[in-house]
Design brief:
heterotrimer, A alpha/beta, B mainly beta, C alpha+beta, B: mainly beta, Ubiquitin-like (UB roll), five-stranded mixed beta sheet, three-stranded mixed beta sheet, 1 helix, 8 strands, C: alpha+beta, seven-stranded antiparallel beta sheet, 5 helices, 26% strand, binds flavin-adenine dinucleotide
């Protein structure tokens, strides 16, 4: 069976950062990613990121991914880092600490790491409406994959559901790809995403229907239209249903952490609405209740790539430190820097929800 | 049928010209797509949106999450059912079929059900 | 009115707060920046990109930008850097009496070219007037264009976008 000092599951910004941190400290690291390409959500982002310079603010998401890839290549040539794509971790066995994985659909393998970082990201949520399973109703991430990674037209005219950052940004990205937006539907009386993201698409003439919801996807086999309706403050439908012309419905109604493997590893889990689902309890170094398992990024609670990268760094640092590869001084210096960066990122009003969520799952120390 | 690609983009360059175009079949119809793109993406570019029919209520399903998590795009590829076509790379000569129901594993073929 | 603001459109009183000081603005060659960033979010590239220190340092990264207009030189570097495309420059000294030059961020296709007649749009994408493109720059070489477009002077607080209409026959 294969072995590795540190196994990172998930090659998005969190996982890659964890791997880079660990490799930079001399550990022998393996990364598995189920996708055909590394980079997770990052490679689908064509817009410039917010945040501060340390997290590459003002740089487009896919370019941030390229910076990470360059670093990864460096450690790969040094022989410190192995990366496997199209490789899905399928199980963690508590008895012996073995991880099983699947290469493509038909090939299976096992690997025994000393320490593990789960950075599996998130998955899309669904909302109930008639025909929500009809082809043409796609998750926002799927639309991004089609158009921004593979350059394929996802549809001619898209109705966006949800005016959080993802709904707003993907609408803008669709327009950049030359695709029409029928409108953006949002159940709340206010957009959930950043105001400036909304302003960008409003000035392109895209309507945002606040306090509206989708009732039904129309069509026989595939989407041929949609019905939306106004809702009141209690989310009850009011007024007349309205038919919208579209051939694609994009759901951007939130993400939820991908945490199946954490459950099977027996990590203590908790449902935290502010972090958008079940997440592992962790100490400030992102170590879960299982002494050999760390968590980072969206898998630890839905946040931003900026925070995911710092969390990855912290998890990588702590995992290597547990192998005694790190001097006390380096450990304290880096740890202090990373925690300061996280604190800055989460300082404002936008970070309020995250802070309150974290207060429910963070413990000072396991023990 | 022509393949629906994004030709001009203000930010991205997809490098479509440098990619290798291969031929595959979908329900015995010949189609073209880029080698190593996900099968589901290649089908979508060919205008195909229905990838399977659910076992109980026989409803059509297509692309949904694109990250190999949701099972919406399961299809039969080269005889293997339940292939996550959104994360399976397209190869020349692949035989891709709409999956009706649960699919039959090779080892089960011929068994009574 | 609130509903409009809540969907990303700057409205009445809030517009007042982003207008540069009139007297300075009227005479400032190359123009002054207008920043429409009313929400506290963790973001500071405008400050980082400003070559003259006109955008004051952020105490907290969540602060909204504050401009020292005496230092602003209308260079448009923040216009191209802001991830929210929330910075615009208006030069009231440019051209004829009733004209002004606006420097607007642009990341769409088709790309405009100098000499193009374009349609100027307001904050909800409605047509305001015609405009003439005289220059296009790409300060950070990162695909965000700054389009220099001549507009009617009395509409600089309405115009926030352009629509490029390519006439193939031309
Ligand atoms: C439209 C949109 C706009 C955004 N804009 C911004 C922004 O402006 N600024 C910002 O900071 N953030 C932004 N984000 C958020 C950011 O992209 C995510 O927070 C970030 O990607 C999370 O990183 P991650 O590494 O935790 O997860 P992901 O990027 O989701 O990566 C997880 C990886 O794990 C892999 N994986 C999952 N399960 C397994 C398994 N079992 N085995 C192997 N591999 C597995 C997946 O294939 C994936 O590659 C945006 C997100 C979206 C969708």
């Amino acid at each position: 069976m294969q072995t590795t000092e540190i196994l990172v599951i998930g090659g998005g910004p969190a996982g890659l950062s964890a791997a880079l941190e660990a490799a930079s400290l001399g550990a022998d690291v393996t990364v598995l990613d189920s996708d055909l390409k590394l980079g997770g959500q990052l490679i689908k982002q064509t817009h410039k990121f917010f945040g501060s310079k340390a997290e590459y603010a003002g740089t487009r998401g896919f370019e941030i991914a390229n910076f990470l890839f360059d670093e990864i290549e460096k450690y790969k040539t040094l022989g410190k880092l192995k990366v496997f794509t199209n490789t899905t971790a399928t199980g963690y066995y508590k008895e012996d600490g073995v991880v099983s994985y699947m290469v493509g659909e038909e090939k299976y393998g096992r690997i025994k790491p000393q320490k593990l970082v789960f950075a599996t990201g998130a998955q899309e949520r669904l909302i109930p409406f008639v025909n929500n399973d009809m082809p043409g109703v796609y998750g926002a991430g799927a639309i991004q994959t089609l158009m921004n990674v593979y350059g394929i037209v996802p549809g001619e005219k898209v109705l966006m559901i949800g005016a959080g950052n993802i709904g707003l940004i993907v609408s803008y990205q669709l327009m950049q790809a030359g695709i029409k937006i029928a409108g953006i539907v949002e159940a709340m009386p206010k957009i959930g995403g950043y105001w400036v993201h909304a302003a960008k698409i409003r000035r392109l003439g895209v309507p945002i229907y606040l306090q509206h919801t989708i009732k039904e996807a129309l069509g026989n086999n595939v989407v041929e239209g949609a019905v939306i309706q106004e809702v009141n403050n209690c989310f009850q439908p009011v007024g007349d249903p309205m038919e919208v012309e579209c051939d694609t419905i994009c759901l951007a109604v939130g993400l939820t952490p991908t945490c199946e493997l954490l459950w099977s590893a027996g990590c203590e889990m908790k449902f935290v609405p502010q972090l958008c689902g079940y997440v592992a309890r962790r100490d400030p170094m992102m170590r879960t209740s299982h002494p050999d398992i760390w968590v980072a990024g969206d898998a630890a609670g839905i946040e931003e790539a900026s925070a995911a990268m710092v969390e990855g760094r912290i998890a990588g640092l702590s995992a290597v430190a547990s192998l005694n590869h790190v001097s006390q001084e380096t450990f304290y210096d880096r740890s202090a820097e990373y925690h300061q960066r996280l604190e800055n990122l989460r300082a404002g009003e936008v970070g309020e929800k995250i802070r309150s969520g974290l207060s429910c799952v963070c413990c000072k120390q396991w023990g | 049928m022509s393949i629906k690609l994004i030709k001009d983009h203000p930010i991205l360059d997809f490098g479509h010209e440098e990619k290798k175009m291969v031929t595959f079949t979908f329900d015995n119809k010949e189609m073209k797509g880029f080698e190593d793109d996900p099968i589901a993406a290649a089908l979508h570019a060919n205008g195909i949106q229905v990838y399977r029919i659910t076992p109980k209520t026989e409803r059509p399903r297509g692309f949904f999450c694109a990250i190999g998590k949701c099972s919406s795009c399961f299809m039969i590829v080269d005889g293997v059912p339940n292939v996550r076509t959104c994360v399976t790379p397209l190869k020349a000569g692949m035989k891709v079929e709409t999956q009706k129901g649960r699919g039959v594993l090779k080892s089960e073929e011929g068994e009574e059900r | 009115m609130d509903k409009l603001f809540n969907s990303g459109v700057l409205t009445a009183e809030r517009i007042e707060t982003v207008i540069p000081p009139r007297d300075l603005w009227k005479t400032k060659k190359n123009g002054l920046v207008i920043i429409e960033c009313p929400q506290r979010i963790p973001c500071n590239p405008c400050y980082e990109s400003c070559p003259t220190g006109a955008i004051l340092p952020f105490e907290d990264i969540n602060d909204t930008p504050v401009v020292d207009y005496t230092k602003c030189i209308g260079c448009g570097r923040c216009v191209a850097k802001c991830p929210g495309l929330a910075c615009f420059v208006a030069d009231l000294t440019w051209g004829a009496e009733n004209e002004a030059l606006m420097k607007l961020p642009y990341e769409m296709l088709p790309k405009p070219e100098p000499g193009d007649e374009v349609v100027c749009l307001d904050r909800i994408g409605s047509e305001v007037s015609q405009g003439k493109v005289i220059n296009i720059t790409e300060p950070w070489e990162d695909s965000t264009m700054v389009v220099h477009v001549v507009v009617p002077k009395d509409r600089v607080m309405d115009i926030r976008n352009i629509k490029v209409v390519k006439n193939n026959a031309r």
